[in-house]
Design brief:
The chain is an alpha/beta fold. It has a single domain, classed as 3-Layer(aba) Sandwich (Rossmann fold), CATH 3.40.50. The protein is built from eleven helices and eight strands. Helix 1 packs across helix 2, helix 2 crosses helix 8 and helix 3 runs antiparallel to helix 4. The chain is globular and about 50 Å long.
């Protein structure tokens, strides 16, 4: 397991899978160990995945200053990884909350980004929102699923009182395109892979300056792929389109039947789209 030192001396770890040109992979959660990404549905057959464990997660050390868990401060860790790998420019992939971090990296270091892939991206870095209405609209697409009544009730209770009486697990199936055994196992491992304290700090006060970030992204020359699942409520395909429009060279792909972890729902579709996008550069 390779490691490197961040700007403040924190030892950070990453995991390598596959062959070919490196692809820096930034996990979501927020602050979930990169192991949940697996080999991104087989993308490792096309690229050497550099799966970063963000500070305080997975095999990376915890920092002395918990304030460094904030998303904007983690940008320096991505840059340290690029320097450690000796890359002049990097292909960067961010998933979910990790897409906010990848977006901030591209805004701050545009000359270091060759391509950017944002998978089921959070959009808080650019001032985007993912509303309960979005999630309810996406949930309605699943009305024929046996778990839908419980999920719909939970969403309604979240809107009314902030938390569902049946617990948050009631809405877990909504994040997967197929709520099968593989999805349930993936979900069961999530809590142990996440640093809860770091997760709270990730979106801390003053983490984002959306107007400045949007302005910087309007000058980004690198090609950008925004990949959304057709069944995902965060972001919905419409919200993904809003994010894509911020990039001069942005393209959106919507995976049919895909949820928040699209490489699990249809690995072949996911790999074909992402590998094809990266190869065109």
């Amino acid at each position: 397991m390779p490691t490197f030192s961040a700007y403040d001396g924190t030892e950070l770890a990453y995991h390598e899978k596959g062959v070919g040109e490196p692809l820096l992979c930034v996990p979501g959660g927020p602050m979930r160990a990169s192991v949940y990404l697996g080999d991104l549905g087989g993308l490792a057959a096309h690229r050497r995945l550099i799966l970063l464990d963000l500070r305080g997660t997975g095999d990376s050390a915890e920092p002395d200053d918990v304030g460094t868990y904030r998303c904007d401060r983690l940008v320096d860790d991505i840059e340290a990884l690029r320097e450690h790998l000796g890359l002049d420019r990097a292909d960067v992939l961010g998933h979910s909350a990790g897409a906010d971090l990848a977006t901030l990296y591209a805004a701050r270091h545009p000359e270091r980004v060759r391509t950017l892939v944002l998978v089921a991206p959070a959009t808080m870095a650019v001032g985007g929102t993912m509303t309960l209405e979005d999630r309810a609209e996406a949930a309605a697409l699943r009305k024929d699923e046996p778990w839908y009544p419980a999920a719909a009730t939970a969403l309604r209770e979240i809107a009314e009182q902030g938390a569902p009486s049946a617990g948050w697990e009631a809405i877990a199936p909504l994040t997967y395109g197929r709520w099968d055994a593989a999805a349930q196992e993936h979900r069961a491992r999530s809590a142990a892979q996440k640093n809860a304290a770091a997760s709270e700090a990730y979106y801390g006060r003053a983490a984002f300056d959306p107007p400045a970030t949007r302005a910087a992204l309007s000058e980004l020359e690198a090609p950008v792929l925004v990949l959304a699942g057709a069944l995902d409520g965060g972001p919905t395909p419409a919200r993904a389109a809003e994010l894509t429009a911020l990039f001069p060279a942005g393209v959106r792909q919507v995976q049919p039947g895909g949820g928040h972890f699209p490489w699990l729902d249809d690995p072949e579709w996911f790999v074909r789209r992402v590998a094809g996008f990266l190869a065109r550069d």
